[in-house]
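Weekend entry, working from home. Most of the wet-lab plans are on hold until the incubator is repaired, so I used the time to fold the two sequences that have been sitting in the queue since the last round of cloning. Logging both here for the record. First:
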Amino acid sequence: MVGVSDVQSSAQAPAAARTPVGRPVLSLALASMMDEVHAHSGAVYLLAPDQPVLEMAVMAGLPRAFAAPWERVGLSAPIPVADAARERRLVWVGGEEEMARRYPRIAVVLPYPFALASVPIATESTVYGAVFVTWPGAHPPDLSEHEREHLTAACSRLAVRLERAAAQSISPQPETDLVAAPLVGGMAGTLGAVESARMVSRLPYGLVSLDLHGRIGFVNAAAAELLNVPVSRLLGTQLWASVPWLNDPVYEDRYRAALLSQHTTSFVALRPPGEWLSFRLYPSTTGLSVRITRSRAVSEMNRAVPPPDGAPSRLVTISQVLNLAGALTEAVGVQDVVQLVADEIAPAVGSQALVMLGSRANRLRVLGHRGYRDAHVVERFDGLPLTEPTPGTQVLRTGVPAFFETRDQLERLYPARAGTRDGFEAWAYLPLIAQGRPVGTCVLAYAEPHHFPTEERAVMTSLAGLIAQALERALLYDAKHRLAHGLQEALLPHSLPALPGIEAAGRYMPATQGMDIGGDFYDLVGTTERTAAAVIGDVQGHNVTAAGLMGQVRTAVRAYTAVGQAPEEVMRSTNRLLLDLGAELFASCLYLRLDPAHGRAVMSRAGHPPPLLLRPDGRVRVLDLAGGPLLGIDASAVYPATEVALPPGSLLVLYTDGLVESPGTDFEESLAELCRRLADAGEQPLDELADGLIRRQGHRLDGEERLDDIAVLLLRAVG
C-alpha cells in the first residue's frame, strides 16, 4: 500500500530547481507500450509534487476531452489509475459491465464497450504515477499473460528512467498528446489520390472523413448537399459545430462511442424542416469515415441548441456534469461539497472562486470558500442578518438566481458592495433549493466581466439543483456528527486527575465508519489519599446506543468504586447491571486498584485484552490475568482478581482491541509488535507515547478506513 508519505517524499525536486528532459520520454514510452499490446488509447499520469494528486501528463489515441473529468485526480479517487498507483498493482477492467460494477462514476460518463488496464509507475521505494491503456470492446474478457508482462515491464522501465532523472533534478517537460493530426490542407498531389477524389464525388450518397477530434478532413459534394452546408464551411470544423441541427449531445455520444469501442455506430437526425438523414460511422485508430444517406422518418427528436461561441464544448460539459453527479453522491460533509464544486463546477463554467452560503437562526453563514486571496473579504459576511440588502441574503431568501456581468451592475443594485474589493468583476448567485426550500447559495466569481447567456444560466441553475441535494445531506451529516461528538466528549473524562505516585495519559479515537462514535471508554479516580482505581472497557457497537450504554457502565463503575467494592465485586455488580438494563449489548472491561506506595496493583478482567507492563529494566510483559466472560452474558459469572507487582518506574498499558486487531492481521503478531514499540519508546513522556501508540502505521493513514474504536490508558508508577 502506498501512503501519502510516499507521495510527499518522492524524489521530485521543486519546479524551479528542475531542468527539462530533451526527448519526449513519456510519449515514446506510452506509444511503445500501446503498440506492443495493440492497445487503442492510453495515458500517463504523474504524481504532483508534494500532493497526493495524479495529473495527466500525456494521452494517446483519443482526444484528451474523453478523459476531461479525470485530468487531475486525488490518489484516493475511486478510479483505476488511482487504485493502481495507491495499491501498487495492475488493475484490469474486462468490459462495460465490469466497469459499471467496479467504477460506476467512469461508466456513467463513458458507457461504451471497452477494456482497460492500469499499471503503476513505481520502483521499490517510490511511486511516480500510473498508466492506463484501453482496447476496443472486442478484446477478450481476460488480460493475456503477454499483455500483463509487457505492461508491467514497460512501466517498471519508465519508473527507473524517472528515478534517474529525479536524482539529477530533471523532470519531463510538457509533451504533446499523441493524437492523429487533422487532414485539412488538401489531398496528396498524386494521380491516384486525385482519381480517388473524383470517384468519391460521383457517389450518390455522402461521405465525410473525421479525425480523432471530430474535425472534417474531406467531404464530397453529395454530403455537402445533404447537410445543406457548402464544402468550404465544413472543412476543418467539427460536424456538430458546422451543422446547427447536428449540435446535439446524442450525436456527439455516437462519435465518442465509435472511437472508444471501435465498433460501427449509427444514428438518424432530422434536417429541418422535415427530412430525416441516416449517419453511419466507421471508426479506425486514425479517425472515422461517415456515410450519409436519406432515411425514412423515425421517432421525433427534439434537441437543444448549440452553445455560444467561447463556451466550453458540450462534450466536456456533459462529461463533467455526469462525473459531478457521481462525485456528489460520495460527498459526506459540507467541506466535501465545497471542494467538489471548486474542483468540478467552477473550472467547467470558467469561474475562478466560489463561496457556499447557508443560514442559521436568521443569519447568513459562510459554509466554505475557495479562490479568495484574503479570506476576511468573504468571512466578514458570516453572521449577517438575512434582512440585510446583499445579493447573498436576497438569493437565499427568495430562491431566485442573480447574475451580475460587471461590477457596475452589482454596485448599482447593492451600493453597499462598493466598498468590498475582492478582486473579481462578475458573479453568479445560484440558489440551492432542496425539497422545495432554499438550503444555501452558491456564489461563483469571475476575475473579468462575464456574459451569462440564457443557455449558460439554465445549465448553472440545473447544476445548482445537484449541489443543493448534496449540501442538504452534508448539513444533516455535519449536525449529526457534532451531536455524536458532543455526546462522546460528555461521556469520556475531559482530563485525568493528578494523583500521588501516578502519572497518567489517556486517548480515544473513534472508528471511521458509522457516526465516528463508539463504546470504548476509560477512567481514573482517586479512592484514598494513597490509592486509585482505573478502568478501561469496550461496549459492543459504534453508535449512539453503544455510547449511551458506555456512559452508564462508566458511571456504575465509579459508583461501585465509591462504596469501596473490591475489583472482583465491581465487575460482578457491573455485569448484573448490564443484564438488568436489558440492552442486549455486551462489554469487555478491565478494572484495577492501584497502590503505588506499596508497589502493587490488583486487577480483574472480563473478556478484555491483557494489559502490558513495562518494567523499570525495559522489559515488557503481557499480563495474562485470570478473568471471566464478557459483561452482560451470564448473571452467575465470577471475575477473579490478580495482584501484580508495580515498582516505581513501571508502566501499565491498558487498551481496547481496536489497537491490536484489524482485518487480515494476526492478534499475537500485533500484540508482539505493540510490545516492541513499547520497549523502544517506553521512556518517552506519556502524552507523546500515547499519541504514538494510537497513530501507529495501519490505524489511520489518509483515506484509510478504521473499523474499530481505539482507547488507551497509560499509568506510570513514580517514586
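Second, folded right after the first finished:
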Amino acid sequence: MDVMPLLLLVAGSAAIAAAGRRVPVPPPLLLVAVGLAVSYVPGVPDYTLDPHIVLPLLLPPLLHTAATDSSYLDLRAQLRPVALLSVGYVLFATFVVGCAAYLIVPGLPLTAALVLGAVVAPPDAVAATAVARRVGLPSRITTILQGESLVNDATAITAFRVALAAAVGEGATWAGGIAEFLIAAIGGVGVGLVLMVPLHWLRTHVKEALLKNTLSLLIPFVAYAAAEQVHASGVLAVVVVALYLGHRAWEVDFATRLQEEAVWKMVAFVLESAVFALIGLQLPVVLKGLGEYEGADAAWYAVAVFLVVAVARFVWVYPATFLPRLSARVRAREGDLSWKGPFVIGWAGMRGVVSLAIAFSIPLTVHGGEPFPERNLILFLTFTTVIGTLVVQGVTLPPLIRLLKFPARDVQAETLAEANAQAQASRAAEQRLDDLLADERNDLPAPLANRLRTVLERRRNAVWERLGQANPVTGETVDDTYRRLSREMIGAEREVFVRLRDGRYIDDEMLRTLLRRLDLEEAAAYRETA
C-alpha cells in the first residue's frame, strides 16, 4: 500500500488550513478551492472517496467533536426547530429535489432522482460547524445549525437506503421505509443510551493516562460500529454518547480533560482539513464517464439542482419557524422573532463530504445486471451541489451576517455573570479550606495556607478586573499584564535550567522534570486569568 498520497493529503491540507487562518477566506473554502486546482496538476493521484472509509472512519470522530462541543441543555431548549430541520427538512428536500430532478433531466427515473434528492438533502456537520465557528453567529442560530447537522445525516442515510432499494428493484414501500426509519432512529438512540453510562464510567475509573486517551479516541468508533451492527443509526449513537460525555465532562479529572481537549483539537483539525481538500480533489473522478451529459446540458442540470436545493430550504424554514408560533404558548416561551434568524438558517445549508460519500456508495448495477440509471450524472450533480453551496453560500454568509447587523454579544454582561459565578465558587472554596484547616489531620504551615488563599483571591479578582479599563500606557488589560510578567519570570528560570544542563550540573532527566514543573506553572497562570 502506497502511503505517500495519504501523507501528501494530510500534510498539504493541514498547511493550507493553517495558512487560511491568516486570510479573510474561511479555511474550508480555501481548501476546496486549492483541491479543485491541484486535482489537475500533473502527477497528482486520483483521490476517490471510499464510502467504506468516510462513513465509518471519518464521520464518527467528526460527529463526536461537534457533539461534545455542543450543549445538551441548549439543544434540548431548541428541540423543536432542530427536529423540524434534521428530520422534516431532510425528507422534504429529498422529495422536492428528487421530483425536480425527474422533471429537469430527461430520461432520469423517478427512483434514481429520489436517490439524488436523499444524497444532497443533509447539510453537513463539518461544513456547518466550521463556517458557524468562523462567522460568529448568534448562539441560538449556531445551536440550531449544529443540532440539525448532528442528526440529519441519520435521516438522509435512511432515506437514501429506501430510495436506493426502490431504484435497484428491491420493492421498497412507504410502510417499509417508515419502518426502516423508525428502527434506525430508535435503535441508534437506544444503542447510545446503553453505551453512554458504561463508557463514562470507564473514563472516570481508568487511571493510566495513555489508556484514557486511547479510550477517548475509540469511543465514537465503538458507538458507530455497535449501532450499525444491529442495523441502527450509527450517527445517532455517536451523537447521543458524545452529548452525554460532554455534559458530564466535569466529573473527569482535570488532566484527562486537558489531554482530551488537546488530542481532539488536533484530530478535528487534521480530519476537517483533509475532508474539505478531498471534496475539491473529486473533480476529475466525477467528470470521468459523464459521457453524453458533458457540456451545456450538464451545466444547466447542475445550476438547476443547486437552485432547487437553495430555494427548497427557504420554502421549508420559514413555515417551520413561524407556523408553530401561531400557538400562544410558543410565542410566550420564545418571545419576538424577526425574519433575520430564519434567513441565515436558510442560507447556511452547506453540503459536504457526507453527501459525496453517500453518492459514491451507489452501486454500479441494479438487479438483473443493468447499470444503475445515470449513476455518473448523479455523482456529478452531487459534486456541483456541494461545491455550489460551499462556495456561494459559504463565501456570502459572513458579509450577509454583517449586513443583517445581528445584536452584538454583550461582553460586559457576560463578564459580570462570570464574575458573579466565580465569586460564589470562591466563597464555597474558602469555606471548604477553613473547614479542612480546622481538622488537626490537615496540619499545614501558615505560608502554604496563605498561598492557597492568595491563589483563590487572585482567581476571584481577575474576572472583576476585566470589567475595568485597559492600562492607559500599554493598552494591556490586567490579565494581559499578569500573563506577560509571569511568562517573563518563567522564561528566566528556563534559561537558568538549560544553562545548568549545558554545564553538566544537572542531567537531561532532571531538566525535563524542572521544565514540566514550569510548564504547569505557566498553564496555571493562564487558567487563573483566562
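Plan for Monday: verify the second prediction. The chain has a mean pLDDT of 84.
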